Amino acid sequence: MKGLLLKDAYMAAKYCRAYLLIVAVFLIAAPFSGDNLFLMMYPCILASMVPVNLLAYDAQSKWEQYAGTLPCSRDQLVSAKYLIGLLSSCGVLVVTGIAQVIRLAMDGDVQLQQVGALMAMAMITSCVVPAITLPLIFRFGPEKGRILYLVVVGMACGISAVVSISSSPALFPQERSPELPVLGLACLAAAVVYGASWYLSVRFYRKRELK
């Protein structure tokens, strides 16, 4: 398992370098964007694309067929992609949280509940988008599944942009900020969805015939 994670980490470092630049640009712009949530959500969506791109490169290099000769199960191959996606998302969440604290500090009012609400939205986005699409990719393969993934990502970006433009200034007013227990339950629900997605992907990948 450790070897699979190292292999995916090396591939991500080689093929996903552009993501770092895009995330950096968005996070630098975020503190100066006021209440524009899209600048905060897009890096989270981008981080969720890392395992999808790795799966596409695996298919291109025939890694899946080669992995069948190695002492690793299909369950481990799926788990490695979910873990690398989780690690990517956690890294982006940390720097996103720092960017949002800087933004609120520039506005002169850092509220714990407000920061918690924004981070909860980022975490839910990081979990739900790949949770919907990764089972499709493991079921139908990277080519067909990636098209469906791009559709879901496009919808997520569109929703984030609409919310940001239409309602973000009053999204989390201080007097109506969600309570921390509610945010904790929302994050727990997102984690459960991510775990259920992993289970579905494992089931789908066990039955899929590799060409």
Describe this structure as you would to a colleague.
This protein is an all-alpha fold and 211 residues long. It has one domain. The protein has helices at 2-15, 17-29, 38-48, 50-60, 63-67, 74-107, 112-140, 142-166, 180-207. α3 (38-48) runs antiparallel to α6 (74-107), α4 runs antiparallel to α6 (74-107) and α4 runs antiparallel to α8. It starts with a helix and ends with a helix.
- Provide the domain count: 1
Average pLDDT across residues?
Answer: 77
Global shape: elongated
What letter string, H or E per element, gives the SSE order? Answer: HHHHHHHHH
Indicate the low-confidence ranges by residue numbers. Answer: 164-177
Helix content: over 70%
How much of the sequence lies in strands comes to under 5%
Supply database-style keywords.
211 residues; 0% strand; elongated; mainly alpha
Protein topology:
Layout: H1 2-15, H2 17-29, H3 38-48, H4 50-60, H5 63-67, H6 74-107, H7 112-140, H8 142-166, H9 180-207
Helix pairs in contact: 1-4, 1-6, 2-3, 3-6, 3-7, 3-8, 4-6, 4-8, 6-7, 6-9, 7-8, 7-9
